[in-house]
C-alpha cells in the first residue's frame, strides 16, 4: 500500500516538474517576444526623438561644410560659382605670409591660454570645494565672466589696459604699464589675460563636478599614510580628475583657436595685424578683400588643423587616463 502511494507521489512530482518546465519555457519565449517588441519600440522612439537633432546637424553643419569645401576649389565670389581652379586657392593660402603669421600667432596664443585657463580653473575648483562658508558665493563670482559676451569683455578689458593701467603707471612710476595693447607682446598677453579670465570660471565648474565625486575614503587613507597636500594632489586627486582635464583641454583648445570677437574688440588685430588671429584673418579675406573662395580654402585648412590637434589631444589624454 505504502509502495503504491509512494509511486503515485513520484509520478505526481514528475508530472509537476515537467509541467513547470514547459511553463517556464513558454513564459520565456513570451518574455523574449515582449522584450524584442520593447526593444523595437524603444529604438523607434529613440530615432524619432533624435531625428530633429540629426536633421539640424545635417542642414546646419554637414551640408554647409561640404558646400564650402566644394567652393574652395572654385573661383567663387560670394554670388556665383565660376570655373574650377583645383588646388590653386590652397597653394596661394600656404604662400600667404599674413595667413601663416596669424596661424602661428593663434598657435602660440592657444598653447599659453590653455595652460593658464586650466591651471586657474583647477585652482579655483580646489578653493571652492574646501570647507569655507562662502564657497557658493565664490562659485557664482568666478563663473560670472563667462556670462558676459566676448565683444563686451573686449571693450571692458581695453579700457582696463589703456586707462587703468596707464593711471597706475603714472601713480607708481612704472613705464611698463603704459601703452598696453600698443605692442605685439602686450597685445598677446592682453588676449591671454582676457581669455583666461573669461573661461576659467567655466572650466572650474567641470573640475568641481569631478572633485566633488572623489571617494572620501581614498583621501582619508592618503592623509593617514602621511601624504601632504602636494603628494595627495599629485598621486590621488589629479589621476582621479584626469577625465575632467581631457574635457577641459578640448574645450579651451577649440575656443582658443576660433577666437574672434574678443580679438576684434580688444586689439582689432593691431598693431599692423601683428595680433590678428586666424578667424579674423579669414573674415577679412572674405568680406574685406571679397575673395570668398580664397577665404574658404583658408577656413578648410584651419578646420583640418584644429580637428587633427583636437583629436590627437583627446587620444593622448585618454591614453594617459588609463595609465594613471
Question: Can you summarize this structure?
Answer:
InterPro entries: ABC_transporter_permease (IPR051393), MetI-like (IPR000515), MetI-like_sf (IPR035906). This protein is an all-alpha fold.
Characterization of this structure:
The structure is a single chain. The chain has two domains: 1-71; 95-323, MetI-like fold. By secondary structure, it is mainly alpha-helical. The longest helix is centred in the first third of the chain and has 70 residues, at 2-71. Helices cover 79% and strands 0% of the residues. The protein starts with a helix and ends with a helix. Helix 2 (88-95) crosses helix 12 and helix 11 (278-288) packs antiparallel against helix 12.
Brief descriptors of the model:
324 residues, mainly alpha, MetI-like fold, 2 domains, 12 helices, disordered N terminus
Amino acid at each position: 500500500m505504502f509502495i503504491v502511494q509512494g509511486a503515485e507521489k513520484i509520478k505526481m512530482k514528475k508530472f509537476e516538474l515537467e509541467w513547470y518546465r514547459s511553463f517556464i519555457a513558454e513564459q520565456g519565449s513570451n518574455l523574449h517576444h515582449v522584450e524584442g517588441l520593447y526593444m523595437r519600440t524603444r529604438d523607434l522612439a529613440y530615432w524619432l526623438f533624435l531625428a530633429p537633432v540629426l536633421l539640424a546637424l545635417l542642414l546646419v553643419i554637414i551640408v554647409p561644410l561640404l558646400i564650402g569645401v566644394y567652393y574652395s576649389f572654385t573661383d567663387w565670389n560670394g554670388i556665383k560659382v565660376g570655373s574650377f581652379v583645383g588646388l590653386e586657392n590652397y597653394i596661394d593660402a600656404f604662400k600667404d605670409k599674413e595667413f601663416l603669421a596669424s596661424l602661428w600667432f593663434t598657435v602660440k596664443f592657444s598653447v599659453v591660454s590653455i595652460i593658464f585657463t586650466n591651471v586657474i580653473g583647477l585652482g579655483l575648483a580646489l578653493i571652492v570645494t574646501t570647507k569655507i562658508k562662502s564657497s557658493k558665493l565664490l562659485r557664482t563670482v568666478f563663473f560670472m565672466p563667462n556670462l558676459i559676451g566676448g565683444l563686451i569683455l573686449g571693450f571692458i578689458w581695453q579700457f582696463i589696459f589703456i586707462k587703468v593701467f596707464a593711471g597706475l603707471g603714472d601713480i607708481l612710476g612704472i613705464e611698463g604699464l603704459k601703452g598696453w595693447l600698443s605692442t605685439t607682446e602686450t597685445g598677446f598677453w592682453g588676449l591671454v589675460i582676457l581669455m583666461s579670465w573669461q573661461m576659467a570660471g567655466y572650466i572650474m565648474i567641470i573640475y568641481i563636478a569631478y572633485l566633488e565625486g572623489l571617494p572620501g575614503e581614498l583621501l582619508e587613507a592618503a592623509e593617514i599614510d602621511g601624504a601632504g597636500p602636494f603628494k595627495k594632489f599629485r598621486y590621488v586627486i589629479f589621476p582621479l580628475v584626469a577625465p575632467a582635464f581631457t574635457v577641459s583641454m578640448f574645450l579651451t583648445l577649440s575656443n582658443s583657436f576660433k577666437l574672434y570677437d574678443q580679438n576684434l574688440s580688444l586689439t582689432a588685430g593691431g598693431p599692423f595685424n601683428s595680433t590678428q588671429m586666424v578667424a579674423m584673418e579669414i573674415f577679412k579675406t572674405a568680406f574685406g578683400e571679397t575673395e570668398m573662395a580664397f577665404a574658404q580654402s583658408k577656413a578648410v585648412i584651419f578646420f583640418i588643423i584644429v580637428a587633427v590637434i583636437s583629436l590627437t589631444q583627446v587620444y593622448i589624454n585618454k591614453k594617459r587616463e588609463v595609465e594613471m
